[in-house]
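Structure ticket #2291
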Amino acid sequence: MTDLVIIGGGPAGMSAAIAAYESGIRDILILERDVKLGGILQQCIHNGFGLHKFGEELTGPEYAWRYEEKVREYGIPFKTGTMVLDITKDKIITATNEEDGIFTIEAKAIVLAMGCRERSKGALNIAGSRPAGIYSAGTAQKFVNMKGYMPGKSVVILGSGDIGLIMARRMTLEGAEVKAVCELMPYSGGLARNIEQCLNDFNIPLKLSHTVVEIHGKERLEGVTIAQVDEKRKPIDSTREFIACDTLLLSVGLIPENELTKAAEVDLDRITNGAVVDQDRQTQKEGIFACGNVLHVHDLVDFVSEEAEIAGKSAANYIKSGAQNDMDAVIKTDGKIRYSVPQRITTKKDITVYFRVSDVFKNVKINVYKDGEQIYSKKKIKVAPGEMESIKLAGEKLDGAKELSLELEL
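Resolution: structure written out below.
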């Protein structure tokens, strides 16, 4: 029996492990499928990490090392090159690696911190053949930053998520010509600072309400046809335009890696595709917690670390004291606010609620109602889907709540 097993050794997993250790738990094990700790940050060599957490700009590997250094200092055990195959609802983990073969671990508590993956070309149904030269933005990032390979010299990027924006700059700095970044929606899915620093600073055009409708080339990509889309996101034939290129990078969304979560019979949120959790990041399965991008996709790794600290401390408290639930309130959103994390509140204490909106809205009020009675209101000049928002709710205002409603007043 192991007190706490953490699935994933990226920033979320390491942060959760450190928080649990600092809360008094010593019997901890991190399982990481890659050959080293750090997760996706190992290939994110650009700066901009750590401003919230450390008050300074770090690269991805530098940010990851801050946590790995602490893991090593505390002597927290970890197994790299280890693939977790299954988790049961009774917290029995089956995993495999070269050294141990297939093995099982019974845990008192589990923190799920598996991160997320990119949506692939197969999910997009773009017409055309399957030539070489089509990559997810993250794969291209790994080729350039870790392998020293250039995917191509003439590039179109589909999707304006943060990875796509960052790779527009990276490919340009490595000598490629980025001809356009096309975005299906009428707004960018990335942070405002990345649009400025990665596109505007390099005069890379951002084509909003545009998508790739056809891929050209047999052995190697020769070009793509793009088109503007209407309000229903359907291509407008009269706007079709051919762009010659040898590389297409896809930055079309991230999906939480929740196969193990499903195996443990944990309830998933249909919007986030992550687990439904309470303020402690505990799922409806007692003793199973979730945090980071496997729970919902974050903009900043600093927020991943903050959330993982909540999960790690909460797992430690669960191991020491068991479940401490004194209420059960559901948080509902109005559509303009797409989702919230947490989705439930089970303890009367001060909490931070994170959420994303469904469109760009200006001059709004964020209102919270407890069983129909308004308990919170906050004005915002602008909210956008690409940037996660948060509000703090005082514990005394939550007392006796059955339902909280999170609404956006225009």
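Closing remark: The chain has a mean pLDDT of 95.
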